Amino acid sequence: MIDLSNSNTGLWQEITDGCGDIKNCFTCGTCVSGCPAAEGEPPLLIRTLIRKVLLGLEDMLLEDQTPWLCVTCSACEERCPMEASPFEVCLAIRRWQSRKDETYIPAAITEIFETGHTQAVGQVKEKRKSLGLEEVPPTIIKFPELLKSFQEMLRNTDIVKENDYMFKG
Ligand code: SF4
Ligand code: SF4
Asked: What is the pTM of this model?
């Protein structure tokens, strides 16, 4: 059972700050069914994130790294029947998490540095094969020399410079 005794009832206003009307969300799940990150590990379940926001589960939401797995395709936004703006909410949660803790570095950022992707794309070889696709997509995962250049570029950003102990490669 979820403990609501410490819930922050104003959390949805603090986070969404005018993007969409998440109070319209009736948990239909349409946003999740078309989300490419919903099949990841851990899965990004935008509907569940919206529930956490509405219930004011601040601590749980602050620990939740799944908003950083969003690949910003905007499919959920287009498909939501209630104009609840799930994609905008996902980005708003990221901003809120970063505001709450300016030292916050989501695991997804180190994943991008190490692999060039936010998702473990190398783990879906069987699925790609069953769809008649190349086992490895023609992205940075297929071109290790590009990954080195990409890492060099990231080394010039403040977030990597200031936290270089987290970025080996
Ligand atoms: S955000 Fe929209 S699509 Fe997603 S569960 Fe809520 S109403 Fe359904
Ligand atoms: S925008 Fe993000 S949350 Fe929405 S469907 Fe795409 S990956 Fe999923």
From this structure: 0.78
